[in-house]
Task: structure prediction
Amino acid sequence: MIHGRVYLVGAGPGDPGLLTLRGRDILAQAEVVVYDALLSPRLLDHAPAGAERIYVGKRADRHTLPQDEINALLVERARAGKTVVRLKGGDPFVFGRGGEEALALADAGIDFEVVPGVTAGVAALAYAGIPATHREGASAIGMVTGHEAAEKDASSLDWGALARWPGTLVFYMGVKNLPAICQSLIDAGAPPDTPAAAVHWGTTSRQHTVAGTLTTLPDLAAEADLAPPAVIAVGQVVALRDRLAWFERRPLLGRRIVVTRARAQASALAERIEALGAEAVEAPAIRIEPPDNPAPLAAAAHDAGTFDWIVFTSVNGVEAFFGALADTGRDARALAGVRVATIGPATTARLAAFGLRTDLEPPTFTGAAVAQALAQAADLAGAAILLPRADIAPPDLARALAERGARVTEVTAYRTVPDASGAQAAVDHLARREVDWVTFTSSSTVRYFLDTVGADALKSSGARIASIGPTTSGTLREAGLEPTVEADPHTIPGLVDAILAYEA
Ligand code: SAH
Result:
């Protein structure tokens, strides 16, 4: 019988970027992923779409699946010959019961591997501006369970030893027992004014730090309604935070922003938003598909060299056109002598990836403005212009070019189809009024997102609306929604800048 193998993989502390390369490579091969609460859903995107995903979400006192059943599940799937990834928060062998799972696998004779992860006790401190060790005053770091503090007699912890600890102490799972932890340390002889802090949801957009001393922290935490998950740091290094708290200075920290673009294109916007400290919730309302009838695009690609101009209005149009050109067995050289115009910097950049420099990138993106820019660059009377575009593109550009005497060939290069699959997370957050912004990057995302979510639900969610430009804003207004901000320039960076300016 061929047995599968189980990988105990550390998922890191929360920021999905803190997964290791080894962890990512192993996830990409997973046939089964068994995962916990506290993990970013983004991590699961590294697993193949067809992999079985099993949530066993452990949370303080709400065990979805008891530990022995998790162990049994891992053994059973491995015996069925599967490649199983057991994805665990932080490091699998630091307070994660990973040791128990590994023992169960060893006892059952199942092959396993451990992929260490970035543990919360170090990472949350780092993001809070607290060096775990420091040359002056912290020559050791102790990671301690905060679970046992309340049962002082039953506790296996030596509070005297902890009070004399020559460095930083980090308590995991200690929110409930925070007063008992601080008091036990003071009772055992730690100076009551020892700096101490609790870092809630470290390394994520929800990060929040409460800092004080062993004496003041319990009350400060209570005032701040501090809830799990949090790590508690005790030691002189906590005071360095005043100068080193880099992450909590990010301008969009704590904001939740919905991205409605097609999944394939969402990442540029999501990454930009997250680099500023916000959480991006991807709610792809549309998906890009090939045209129903590929013949017109294929014919246009075949005749590529016969046009005077090709006007690319989107990244998708560029990709579809060059895909069709490749199907004819040729490449960009087939466009020798053809002039090319592009709308927007992203389209220009995508064209460059195929080896072509744009001849014209009009400064404004409406159909009339583009036609005017083209007319200034060349005589359009009788000019043959190819327009590879979306099935639902507005007709104004083709019309404006035709009015100036051009012979326009419009072909559908791709279709924009509704895709409700990804919107559920956004719908839930909106219903709970947990969304700060919804971003719209085209009229079609507006229409499809509203088809799924409903304009009223968006309105009553209290979320602000960011629009990429006047066309998209017009579609929003038709639906009775007024954009809070409109990007200028009408680009992804412009959209993010508009949100930043508003928040400032
Ligand atoms: N194996 C994990 C720890 C699991 S125990 C690791 O190595 O990080 C769960 C505890 O970890 C929580 O109670 C909390 O104390 C801590 N924790 C996990 N994620 C955290 C986060 N993002 N911010 C702060 N503490 C976190």
The radius of gyration is 28 Å. The CA atoms of residues 351 and 481 lie 34 Å apart.
